[in-house]
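Lab channel / #folding
Pinned by the channel admin:
"Please post every new chain as: sequence first, then the structure tokens as a reply. Keep commentary short and put observations after the output so the thread stays searchable."

First post following the new format, from NK:
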Amino acid sequence: MKRTSAEYKSSIKPVWCAGCSEYSVLSSVQKVLAELDIPPEDIVVVSGIGCSGRFSHYLNAYSLHGTHGRALPISLGVKAARPDLTVLTVGGDGDGLGIGGGHISHAARKNVDLTYLMIDNRIYGLTKGQASPTTPLGAKTKTSPYGVYEDALAAIPIFLAYDVSFIARGNIGDVSEISELVTAAITHKGMSIVYIVSPCRTFPVEGFKETVESSEVVPADHDRTDRLKAMELAYSYSPLYTGIFYQIRKPTLGDRLRDDTDRAQAEAGGKEVTIEQILQSFA
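Reply from TO:
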């Protein structure tokens, strides 16, 4: 029997602000998981701190609501230990590009087969409106009453510089596009990031309507393997491109670990060798 999105709803009721776009993202993810027919018991959701940190509570799956900025390394450990599981990482701009930003490069180097949903509302919304790493220059917030004096981080170029093997951006004004991007990300073999532009309704630093109207899908003839062209599109703000910027196939962390295991077994004369035996040989 085909699964339904209701099977991925937990018994905990979401408590985001009225009108928050996180509701739409959650609904999209539940729909995608049902369409991909992934058993809930084969899914692990790891989230950090902030509005998006609550995401893991609302999915019927194994979940962990971790500490600030540590969702990615936890997810990496889960996938390394249980490569058979579908691992979803969820975080916001503060959690993912602030204290947790340093973890992206190392997860990308390993090309861990997980999907990272970064939901950017350009503010620390849960803690009542402080400036985040992506808050626009000049915006007035609780921590910048005279306007933000730092340049905002450009997320997509950062992901491209780290050579994340799948990079996409969605706009919450087009929920169907987000579902398509999440589907493509989960089915991609390797590290995937879906960056979702989601203006905060309670502490807005940019208009929802303006953000939606400025968006445009990446050109149909865009070569997704061309990182330099993807970088050029990523630095466009008018229009703000959405869709898949970059996608390549390269060995995942699981592939590389299996190669090491195979070599170790070959050196042992083809006999099956356990990880414990390999470690003991270096004692």
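NK: Residues 22-36 form the longest helix (15 residues).
TO: also worth noting, The chain has a mean pLDDT of 93.
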